[in-house]
Amino acid sequence: MKIWLFPLWFLLALPLxxxxxxxxxxxxxxxxxxFRAAWVTAIxxxxxxxxxxxxxxxxxxxxxxxxNKLVSLKMNAVILQVRPHADALxxxxxxxxxxxxxxxxxxxxxxxxxxxxxxxxQARGIEVHAWFNPFRALSNTSHSCNGNHISRTxxxxxxxxxxxLWCDPSxxxxxxxxxxxxxxxxxxxxxxxxxxxxxxxxxxxPGLTFNDGKSPAQRRAVIDSFVSQLYSxxxxxxxxxxxxxxxxxxxxxxxxxxxxxxxxxxQDLAADSRKWLKNGWVDYLAPQLYWRISPxxxxxxxLLEWWRGQGSRPVWPGIATTRIQSSEDPGRPASEIVKxxxxxxxxxxxxxxxxxxxxxxxMKNLGGITDQLSKVYTQPxxxxxxxxxxxxxxxxxxxxxIVQGDKTSVRWETGGTTAKVVVQARYGKTxxxxxxxxxxxKSISIPRADAVAVSALDRFGNSSAPKVLAIR
Length: 472
Hints:
Mean pLDDT: 95
CATH topology of the largest domain: TIM Barrel
Number of helices: 13
Distance between the termini: 27 Å
Shape: globular
Structural class: alpha/beta
Strand order of the largest sheet: 10-9-8-4-3-2-12-11
Oligomer: single chain
Radius of gyration: 23 Å
Low-confidence stretches: 1-6, 8-16
Strand content: 15-25%
């Protein structure tokens, strides 16, 4: 293992009166891991931008406000919707600009939103997972389309379902388009993940039929093939990009025993999500467990325990923070979400994590939820690793530190595969994670510490051994 020596210029530049730190053999605790994310939804301007037609500067300010909120809560990832319905919240030669940006499909917002989100998120140590809807063509036929929309360029794959337009998943051109669009983003943007939602087929409505002539089993075979191909294609292009899917929270009614559901996602949506988890076609599964812990018929805890028993890859449940004190769930207290987070840390044996639906609940502090989360998210955490993809640890960073008044200034040098740096600090006998920041930041100032430990993280989440320093 290569160990980076801290540059001599830094040591020579230390003020003579400043207290400095020297290497010690002390061993800090392991870096704490948890996936803490929130969905940011563009369609119907649910989360961002707050309405269509806003100036680019206003959209960017709203994006920064969301990211700053996540940082203040010590969260580490955002699931950003970039393809609501065969449109793009990024510069694309394949599909038109999303109308949720400007109010007009095909009209440029004057900047590249996805590139901006990535730039701002990376500067804050936040992961960006690009969220795609693979097969929805138009959420409502009342919305106007431009000539570059798939309903105009490939009308032979379009199926009308009530007030929606759908790309027929069984048609090869549908799957080819979706795969091409996703891989284009993976290739051109420095994203951390690819994320799909649960809309593989439209949710059933009374009196409507999706006229593709396929049986439920045939549809499942089509979706299984697409999910498998997507996973292998993303990994071939950039193996560190995580692939996650957020299926309906109940695999089938009656599974596990006592669970009730008005929807059979296995039959109705062609989503055999349990198979994807079992077969390792995802790096994480995020079933939408939007119900309360009780009653039993749709119990969050019962469902989470079942899901986490279905495969070896992480299951990071979606939790419905936006349903706090809502018409969807009258009387739901913020404490329900806090309890669900607690259970997500205890149930099953796997890397822990969860995703808030959606960031609006956090931005509005519904029921005082962000106040309560400050007691739940007590220190920054690293995103869990992917040992099924890579176990190769990055090099130990070079590091130095000095006391400056009531602060400790920590500097580091990294190389190779290092993407982020974890700075742990000891106050008395207690170690805490002080910060997780981009490696390129090169330095950070923290409250005066008795000792510090600096570790490197790569894009797979692997950690180096720490470089530990204590006051001389």
